[in-house]
Specification:
Order of helices and strands: HHHEHEEEEEHEHEEHEEEEHEHEEEEHEH
CATH topology of the largest domain: Aminopeptidase
Shape: globular
CATH superfamily of the largest domain: Zn peptidases
Helix content: 25-40%
Number of strands: 19
Distance between the termini: 53 Å
Strand content: 15-25%
Bound molecules: zinc ion
Number of helices: 11
Length: 486
């Protein structure tokens, strides 16, 4: 009892409410890029160290630059957006890299796109009395409706976490409704147990969600299926809005002016980029990476594309006779537009996978572990832990896990039942594996090359190279899923 009491006193002192003078933030002792941990490689895996992390990170930076060029032409909705010139630029860029690596039959398979959701411009400004607050972080959820030519001017209300208790007896008709979420990794309709729908059903005229991830980031949500203009806000703007509404309580409510011009742009095209590395047999390994991404998309999917190109370069240097299987590299259109042209086409052409020993999806392969603290996010000098999927025989599971552990690839304890992301439509056509990171900055403008650890990018790429090499000693049928396997 006595011990507990002393512990309690110490803890109370540590959480003393006495205000302290603000202290200047501590600074890093080393630039993050120089302090990332390197995984030691054992002698039998030395060959894979020709896969260089800094070189691959250069590919991430080049893709981020394609996004910024598109943004700097005046596009408020930006990234390597499917159907735009940034899509074509990154396809041409990828083909040049594939040709330089020595792949054969490098070509672009074009697809016509249905009309694409392209918000042309938007603005959100709140006001309370004399005070105005520009909510610059406001980012429309994908496929959100616009406002038409007339801006909306709506009374702002705060519904906290939009739980059933928060929404009980609320009349939200004609209101701009702000809510908050600690559902950090949800960027879609499901956030906070279907909050968008609950709010809309109460009559809201505009909806704003703030994920409680410290910072001032713009965040792109997937479609949330609301029928009113819907936006994500940064933590900074979300809390400022909460305070504005709170300060006005009992008096005149703050108002929000919302303007958004949305066009559905017809006649655009996207593509799958193909490249082949012929092997000693007509059995194949297929390596995919989706080319699209929001904002700079350094991890989604700059790293995945870099990993795929790193594999192409590595295997192109090995004599054809020593490569058991032909390797097909696919830069796919992606899925952020919702229609996923490459994936849809591949799902309709199962014959492509008739002799496929392994499908490897390179998607969000390396990001810095971000640690959420009190009102801040701290970057670490190690890679974030990846979600992983392996669909095949016990032998394939073994080879895969050996590959990851040889290069210190951190994974969650339990693999995923199915692979989230680009190969969702095709993974059951052959044995398949993937690693994927969807961290705190995923789908935001904070997802920059600055959070991509070159050593981790090398580790994942080396692990995939080892897995491709190691399955070379295994018959195709011995890699396949058992009946009823995932
Ligand atoms: Zn992705």
């Amino acid at each position: 009892m006595k011990k507990t009491f002393i512990g309690f006193v110490v803890a109370s002192a540590a959480f003393s409410q006495t205000p302290r003078a603000p202290q200047p933030p501590m600074k890093a002792l080393h630039p993050l890029d120089e302090s990332y941990l390197n995984w030691p490689v054992t002698p039998e895996n030395k060959a894979y160290t020709s896969i260089d992390g800094q070189h691959l990170k250069g590919y991430v930076e080049e893709q981020a630059a394609i996004s910024r060029r598109y943004r700097d032409k005046g596009h408020q909705f930006w990234g390597r957006i499917i159907g735009t010139e940034a899509d074509n630029e990154n396809a041409q860029w990828m083909m040049a890299k594939m040709k330089a690596a020595g792949l054969t039959d490098v070509h672009q398979q074009l697809f016509d796109l249905p009309p694409q959701w392209m918000p042309q411009s938007w603005s959100v400004v709140a006001s309370a009395g004399e005070r105005t607050l520009k909510l610059d972080s406001a980012q429309p959820t994908h496929r959100s409706v616009g406002t038409g030519p007339e801006a909306l001017n709506l009374e702002a209300v705060d519904v906290a976490f939009a739980s059933s208790a928060d929404l009980a007896n609320r009349d939200l008709r004609g209101k701009a409704v702000f809510f908050y979420s600690t559902d950090f990794f949800s960027r879609h309709v499901t956030v906070n147990d279907g909050a968008f729908k609950k709010i809309e059903d109460l009559g809201a005229s505009a909806i704003f969600v703030t994920l409680m991830i410290p910072g001032d980031m713009k965040m792109q949500f997937y479609p949330v299926n609301s029928k009113v203009p819907t936006f994500a806000l940064s933590y900074k703007d979300g809390l400022a809005m909460r305070d504005l509404i709170g300060a006005a309580r009992g008096g005149t409510a703050p108002h929000v002016k919302v303007a958004m011009d949305v066009k559905m742009v017809p006649d655009e095209k996207t593509s799958t980029v193909w490249g082949t590395l012929p092997g000693a047999t007509d059995e194949t390994v297929i390596v995919t990476a989706h080319r699209d991404g929001w904002f700079e998309g350094a991890n989604d999917n700059g790293t995945g594309v870099a990993t795929m190109l790193g594999l192409a370069e590595y295997f192109a240097k090995i004599p054809q006779a020593q490569r058991k299987r032909t390797i097909i590299f696919l830069g796919t259109s992606g899925h952020h537009d919702g229609t996923a042209e490459s994936g849809t086409w591949l799902s309709q052409h199962k014959e492509i996978f008739a002799k496929t020993a392994l499908l490897i999806n390179c998607e969000h392969t390396a990001a810095t572990q971000l640690v959420q603290g009190n009102q801040i996010i701290t970057k670490s000098n190690w890679a974030s832990t990846l979600t992983w999927y392996v669909g095949g025989s016990k032998k394939l599971e073994e080879i895969t896990m050996k590959g990851y552990s040889a290069f210190g690839v951190p994974t969650q304890e339990i693999p995923a039942r199915s692979p989230a992301g680009e190969i969702g439509r095709i993974y059951m056509n052959s044995p398949a594996i993937q690693l994927i990171d969807t961290g705190l900055y995923w789908h935001s403008d904070y997802e920059t090359p600055d959070i991509i650890p070159a050593p981790a990018l090398a580790n994942v790429t080396r692990a995939y190279a080892k897995i491709i090499t190691d399955i070379g000693a295994v018959d195709l049928k011995d890699l396949q899923r058992p009946a009823g396997g995932y």
